[in-house]
Amino acid sequence: MITIGQLAGYVGVSVKTVRVYHDKGLLPEPDRDASGYRRYGAKDVIDLIKIRTLAEAGVPLARIRDLRSASDEEFRRALRDIDDGLTDRIRGLRATQGRLRRLAAGDLAPLPTEVGAHLEDLARWGFTPRWVDLQRDLWILVFATHPDRATALFHDQAEILADPALRRIFLDYDHAYDLDADDPRIDDLARRAAEATRERYGPDELPGLDTASEIPALVQSTVNASSPAWQRIDTLIRAHLE
């Protein structure tokens, strides 16, 4: 027979933890001996090992208490369910670990290879590093929140930028970043952008995500917040398209 301290030490828990298990009804308290000490036997060690193992697996204490009265078959079935839950948690943790490693490497989210190649094209075509970084962040947002629409939207924009005349509009948009919001060049750029949009999509069907999504507004607000000139361009384009 052993003391509570020896029991805790053998199993690898604290005496306080053993007492909590007593209070919760998980581990019966043995009677005290003539000296007033509680003494524990081999069965108590085995029971405590089972309790500790289940608790470490994330099983709530109330559930562990219920399992004490389960039949052998019920107990085995419960263990299988717990094992399946652990497998799911491990899979989730590995996915989280992968995201952390990508974050540490400066890669917030994986983008399709074709998007990476497109971003390289932007730099080659004369877009500023600021614009390229902004486009990367926005595509990460779109692919993360609307994976079902993101590829089609990306192909649409890539096709637009493959056209030198349309690409010129985007380049002018990029380089308007530092212009004063009242610069007359902004009005001309907004008019050209609106005309190109109507010519490509028609008057009634403009590209974008579903109307219930808040992402388009978030994307545009992110762009507008970068530059007063960009914000005015957006306002003027909307006015032209109404």
Automatic annotation (TrEMBL):
Keyword annotations of the record: DNA-binding
Coiled-coil-forming residues are none
Name the domain of life this protein comes from.
Bacteria
Q: Quote the InterPro entries the UniProt record gives.
A: DNA-bd_dom_put_sf (IPR009061), MerR-type_HTH_dom (IPR000551), MerR_fam (IPR047057)
For the keyword DNA-binding, the answer is yes
GO MF terms here are:
DNA binding; DNA-binding transcription factor activity
Which positions fall inside the HTH merR-type domain? 1-70
Gene3D superfamilies reported in the protein's UniProt record? 1.10.1660.10
Q: Provide the protein name.
A: MerR family transcriptional regulator
Question: Which source organism does the UniProt entry give?
Answer: Streptomyces liliifuscus
Classification from the root reads:
Bacteria, Bacillati, Actinomycetota, Actinomycetes, Kitasatosporales
